[in-house]
Structures are given as structure tokens and as C-alpha cells.
Automatic annotation (TrEMBL):
Ranges of compositional bias, category Basic and acidic residues: 9-20
Pfam families named among the record's database cross-references: F-box (PF00646), FBD (PF08387), LRR_At5g56370 (PF24758)
Domain of life: Eukaryota
PROSITE patterns: FBOX
Ranges where the F-box domain occurs: 18-53
Protein name: F-box domain-containing protein
Region (Disordered): 1-20
Transmembrane regions listed in the UniProt entry: none
Length: 434
């Protein structure tokens, strides 16, 4: 009997690869193109005859005037787009505009067709049309380098996210009406927004729905915040504190930084500013601070006692290794701390830290559960391991300690060997070396 050999299927390497993307339904292809810039979306038209017109059905316009050969080409393309979508919704409008352009007809066109996500980056003294104030379906508004005209009526009933960057307005009431006219606003970013008339501006910001806010203002502006539902406040401080929270509640999270000019801080009254910041910190549960804030805390603690942060449960801090000696004082102030994240930065002073891990703060024996250390300073390995030993030895309820060290594998093995031999106060603590 002659046995039959089982036939095996082989791939024909010479056959063209199957184009599975083109087999997708047209609505799904349009959804994919929606997340590309208009320029990249148009480029797909050369793939095949099937792709030639897909980009025309995408309900979004994302253009940069600098990518066109001249102003006429940019305006002509945009006009054709708005004309082709005269009967359909436009979900997203993003314009990066360099030069003098009249946006009135374009903004009017998209607001009449219920635009939801306009991004208008206008890099000249462009005036935004009044129709933007009454777009009933607008969800996300981002304006950069624009001028906001005054308006008697502001009605943005669906707006949840607002980003204003280097935006100018004629008076404080224009900005205040923009906020009060957005009854469901949840996320607000204000970067270098200013009054075109007054040098010093105090803006009264009142919102019953605002949850997240980022403030980066210059010294001439101050924001008074009345937002009882505010959960997270991120801010940068130049020479003085630029915000004041007057509502009874306080955001659960505070992320604070100091601006520097050519590497130097510009605080006019550092003691007062730091004292005010410490007062705010005493009211939050989650704190993120940069190395500049850490350094100012360190200098402040040498002059007067640090206040207690009884509400603080999470601390995320960046610091120069020479200021590591501040850590015991800071931990002593955080009486109920549960999570500690420490990240080191390049040490410009190149000064050896003088750390005395003697006293045991209350949080180590009563509340600290998670520690994450992102420390990669080879010359200070001894101080780092002293810190790790101190935390493991005294943290009674510690559940996890993560150590991220950017060294070769041999050095990591040495870390592991030393860590295994360390005494742990918490028998359930998991130690991870990354």
C-alpha cells in the first residue's frame, strides 16, 4: 500500500497582501480619519480609487495655515470644506492660523451646524466672532492667542472643557460672564490670559460645577475662586501667589510649582508666599510639589516650625538630592500620610546631603502604606539606601515599596541583595526593584 502524503497549505509569497483596512465599513474608516489632521486625511486619497473621497466625509477640519503655499490657498481650501459640509454636522474644528484672517463667516457657519469640539489657535490679534458665545452644542473650547470681544449674552449650556491660552479680553466681566454662562463647565485651563486695558486684574471666578482647574498667570493677574466642587487645582506661581479660594470646601488635590527666570526664582516676599502656600496645603488630601517648592520649604523650615498637614494622605514630590535632609521634617508634618512618591532631579548645587534619620514621624508608625522612590543618583547611593532602610525599618503598615534605579543589571542585583537583608517592620511589605 502506498501511503498518501498529507497535503500542506503554503502561502504564496508572490501574492499581494490582503488590504483588510479597505474592507472596513465606510463609517468606521471615517472614524479613523477623524483622529488625523486634515492634511494626513487628504493624503489617504492616493491609496486607491476607493479611498479617493473618504476624507470628504470626515466631519472635522484640522488645518495649519503655515502648511499652505499662501493665504489664498488656505482660505480656498477651508471655504470648499465648509461648502461641502453645509448640510452636515462638523464635530471638530481646529485652526492654527498665522496672519490676518477674518474668521467670522467660518465660526458662524460651524456654530449654526452644532459644532462640538472647536480648537482655534490664532497666533495674531484675531477677534473671535460673537457667535461663539451662543453655540448650544459646544462641548470643548480651546482658544489661543485670540481676543475675546465683550458680549451681553453668553449661553454655552453643554460646554464642559475650556482652555484659554494667551487670550485677551476687554475687561474682567467678559471673562466672568464666559464662566457663569457655562453652567456645566468641569475643566478649566487659564494660561497667561489678561486684560488689554488694566495692568492689575482680579477675576472673580464662580462655578458650581467646576472640578479641575489649571492656572498659570503673570504677576498682574489674580483669580478669586468660588467653586465648591473643585477637586484638583494645578497652578504656577511667579513672584507672588496668584489665586485665592473663598469657598468653604477646598480641592482634594493641589499641584503647585514656582516659575523661574533663567533658573532663578522671582518671589518678592518668599516667607509670606510660602506661608500662604502651607496654609492651603493644610486643607488638601493630595499634594504634588516640584523641586523649587521643596527647596523653599527647606529654607522656610530653618526659620520657623512647619505647620501640620492633618488632611494630607498622598504626597508626590520632586527634589534635588542635596535637599533630602528636608524629608524627615516634611514627614513629621504629614501626620496621616498613606502614599509617598519621591523623584530626584539633577542636583545643580552638587552638595552632599546631611540627613539625620533619627526621629520616627507619626505617619510611619500609623498610616504609610505605599512608597515609590524614583532615585537615580549614583554618587548618593549610600544616602538612598539609608532612606530605604529607614522606611522599611519604621513603617509599621507599609504594603509596598518600589525602588526605581537607572543602573546596569549588576547594580540592580546588588540592590536586591542588600534589600533582602534589610529588616522590615511590616511583614507583609512587598519590595520591588525596577
Amino acid at each position: 500500500m502506498v501511503s498518501r502524503k498529507k497535503k500542506t497549505k503554503t502561502c504564496d509569497k508572490s501574492s499581494p497582501k490582503e488590504d483588510r483596512i479597505s474592507q472596513l465599513p465606510d463609517p468606521l474608516i471615517c472614524h479613523i480619519l477623524y483622529h488625523l489632521s486634515t492634511k494626513d486625511s487628504v493624503r489617504t486619497s492616493v491609496l486607491s480609487t476607493q479611498w479617493r473621497n473618504h476624507w470628504r466625509s470626515v466631519p472635522a477640519l484640522d488645518l495649519d495655515s503655515a502648511t499652505f503655499s499662501n493665504k489664498h490657498a488656505f482660505v480656498s481650501f477651508a471655504e470648499r470644506f465648509f461648502k461641502s459640509h453645509s448640510e452636515s454636522w462638523i464635530h471638530k474644528l481646529r485652526l492654527h492660523i498665522y496672519g490676518e484672517f477674518d474668521l467670522t463667516s467660518w465660526i458662524d457657519a460651524v456654530t449654526r451646524r452644532s459644532i462640538q469640539h472647536p480648537y482655534i489657535d490664532y497666533f495674531v490679534r484675531g477677534k473671535i466672532p460673537l457667535s461663539i458665545y451662543t453655540c448650544e452644542t459646544l462641548l470643548h473650547l480651546r482658544l489661543c492667542y485670540s481676543f475675546l470681544p465683550d458680549s451681553e449674552v453668553v449661553s454655552l449650556p453643554c460646554l464642559k472643557i475650556m482652555h484659554l491660552e494667551y487670550v485677551r479680553f476687554p475687561n474682567e466681566s467678559t471673562f466672568e460672564k464666559l464662566i457663569s454662562g457655562s453652567p456645566v463647565l468641569e475643566d478649566l485651563t487659564i494660561i497667561r490670559t489678561s486684560n488689554v486695558v488694566k495692568e492689575h486684574v482680579v477675576v472673580q471666578l464662580s462655578s458650581g460645577t467646576l472640578k479641575r482647574m489649571y492656572i498659570d498667570m503673570d504677576d498682574s493677574s489674580e483669580v478669586v475662586i468660588d467653586a465648591p466642587l473643585l477637586q484638583c487645582l494645578r497652578t504656577k506661581i511667579a513672584s507672588k501667589k496668584n489665586f485665592q479660594i473663598i469657598n468653604l470646601g477646598f480641592p482634594a488635590k493641589l499641584d503647585i510649582d514656582l516659575q523661574s527666570l533663567r533658573g532663578h526664582l522671582r518671589l518678592t516676599h518668599p516667607t509670606k508666599v510660602i506661608r500662604d502656600i502651607l496654609t492651603d496645603i493644610s486643607r488638601v488630601k493630595d499634594l504634588v510639589i516640584t523641586s523649587d517648592i521643596w527647596k523653599e520649604f527647606f529654607l522656610y523650615s530653618k526659620l520657623r516650625p512647619m505647620r501640620k498637614f492633618h488632611n494630607l494622605s498622598s504626597l508626590n514630590a520632586r527634589f534635588a538630592i542635596c535637599h533630602l535632609e528636608m524629608l524627615p521634617t516634611l514627614l513629621e508634618s504629614c501626620t496621616k500620610l498613606e502614599s509617598l512618591i519621591l523623584s530626584s532631579i539633577r542636583d545643580k548645587e552638587k552638595r552632599e546631603p546631611n540627613v539625620m534619620f533619627a526621629a520616627v514621624p507619626r505617619c510611619l508608625v500609623s498610616s504609610l502604606k505605599v512608597v515609590e522612590l524614583k532615585l537615580s543618583i549614583p554618587r548618593c547611593e549610600g544616602e538612598i539606601m539609608k532612606l530605604v532602610r529607614y522606611l522599611l525599618k519604621n513603617s509599621k503598615f507599609l504594603e509596598k515599596l518600589s525602588l526605581n534605579v537607572c543602573h546596569r543589571e549588576k547594580a540592580k542585583c546588588e540592590y536586591l541583595t542588600e534589600l533582602v537583608a534589610m529588616r522590615r517592620c511590616s511583614s507583609s511589605c512587598e519590595v520591588i526593584v525596577l
